[in-house]
Amino acid sequence: MSSRTLLRCLLGAVLLLPVSSAVAVGGPAGPAAGDRAVDYRGLRLAVPDGWRVVDLDRNPGACLRLDRPTLYLGHAGTQAECTGRAVRNRAETLHLEPLDGAPPRADIPTVGVDGGGAPPWARGDSNEVRYALRGSGVMATVSYGDAPDAVRELLAKARTAAGGVPGGGRRGRPGGPGVLARPAVAADGAPSRTAQAPFTGPGFDACTAPAQGAMDGWRAESPFGAVGIYIGGRARACAQPRLTAGWVGRQAGAGWHLMPLWVGPQPWHNAATGLSPDPSQANDQGRAEAEGAVRAARSLGLAEGAVLYNDLEHYTDRRTWDAPVVAYLTAWTVRLHELGFRSGAYVSANSGAKALSLHHDQAPEAMPDVLWAAAWKGRASVTDADMGLSEGTRQWAGRRRAHQHRGDYDATYGGVTLNIDRSWVDVDPAELDGPRPVLS
After folding, report:
1. Residue 100 contacts by C-beta under 8 Å, 6 or more apart in sequence?
2. Coil, strand, or helix at residue 24?
């Protein structure tokens, strides 16, 4: 969950020349000046200058990052090159893949489109929307910063090889301004479950949900028993093409303790991904983000009672951010409780943890149920010092803690290498229902 924007290994995935029989760049009736024409499965798009074009069939390890303008083509592969967790700047990206075989993603909404022209205006809680373009047999996944208008316009101008609009020129179903498209509940039929049995031991998280083969190999050969998964949020760095209710169910069935992470607005100044420095507005953001996280959790088959973690990255200007951070995370907690879920907060031991601790006794009932603190000092423990708390405190006493003690490194088990952050987890959801100790 490093706040740095890690972009290594991306240049090797950029393809600006013809790459396969299904993908070609340029050709007759080329793009306007400054654009490039890209043909994909009968569609011709004018890709803006400055966008990368990544062929995922040729580069299965390429990461579907959401912070650089990119056209991704084909079904996602292993995404072995993924690094980073939260990003300051979200970009417009477009992922085109065959409709046949597109995964039933539950973390973002899918809108069916029967005709051509601009797809309906819709937004998602995580600034990502999928359009099932039935007329052309293509799934188009759009991500954006403030609004999806630029990528929708790119799709609206797409043409078939014969020169028509995809789907025969019929208009798509209308969607009024500001329509919020929501994921279906338990999209691929998996039963609801908390997937959070009591657990003490090492856990990891990666930028994108690993492939099933990787999860199986790591379950058999690694020391890890808990896994963090990024279920959504406007500052999420990587797409999650494998994140379905079925994926969640398989990991729960294998005995993994799941730690769902929501990467909402962050303590930095950015219109698309930033937290408001006004505590009143940050409070409103916390409630709204909790509602989005619950929608994603329910669609992934996570039952009420599960702990949902808000990923809020490190900040140095505590004078500016402490008050809105506390307002945001307490509002997040209260709203999650109202909706039947438990609250977790992933914060830096040197900023967010100290802010929460300082204000703990003002509203102990509104504090997150679980504190997950990051301090990359290599100590696998949840002591007060490692959590950024005062020595001898009873705050988050008992099995209510996790400590991320190492980050951004490659680990290999079962022949599969993943870039991960590593944590020591000590969480028992049964203890979260009991009385909360406070300072005497």
Report:
1. 137
2. strand
Residue 316 CB neighbour total at 10 angstroms: 11
In DSSP notation, 148-191 reads SHHHHHHHHT-EETTSS-TTTTPBPPP--TT-B--PPTTTT-PP
Bridge partners, residue 259, by sequence:
228
All residues at 6 or more sequence positions from 207 whose CB lies less than 8 Å from its CB, including other chains: 63, 79, 82, 83, 84, 85, 230, 237, 238, 419
Give CA–CA dist 120/117, Å, rounded: 9
CB count within 10 Å of CB 159 equals 18
Least confident of 88-97, 105-114, 298-307: 105-114
Name the token pair of 396: 């988050």
The tokens 């205006």 sit on which residue?
A: 121
> Which of 11 and 106 is assigned the larger pLDDT?
106
Cα(325)–Cα(17) distance, rounded to whole angstroms? 46
CA nearest 437: which of 387, 382, 384, 395?
395
Is residue 116 very low, low, confident or very high in pLDDT (cuts 50, 70, 90)? low
Three-state secondary structure along 263-305?
CCCECCCCCCCECCCCHHHHHHHHHHHHHHHHHHHHHCCECCC
How many other β-carbons are positioned within 10 Å of the β-carbon of residue 155? 25
User: Per-residue pLDDT tens for 279-331?
Assistant: 999 999 999 999 999 999 999 999 999 999 999 999 999 999 999 999 999 99
Nearest to 266 by CA among 309, 337, 325: 325
Q: Residue 346: name the closest of 318, 310, 389 by CA.
A: 310
Q: Which two tokens stand for residue 85?
A: 């967790």
Q: Torsion angle of alpha carbons 310, 186, 142, 306, nearest 10°? A: 0
CA neighbor of 54 nearest in space, from 35, 75, 85 = 75
Q: Give how far the C-alpha of residue 110 lies from the chain's centroid of Cα atoms, to the nearest Å.
A: 16
The two tokens of residue 10 are 């991306």
Q: Return the structure tokens found at 162.
A: 């014969």
Looking at the DSSP bridge assignments, the partners of residue 46 are 37
168, 160 in Cβ contact below 8 A? no
Distance CA 2, CA 84 (A): 6
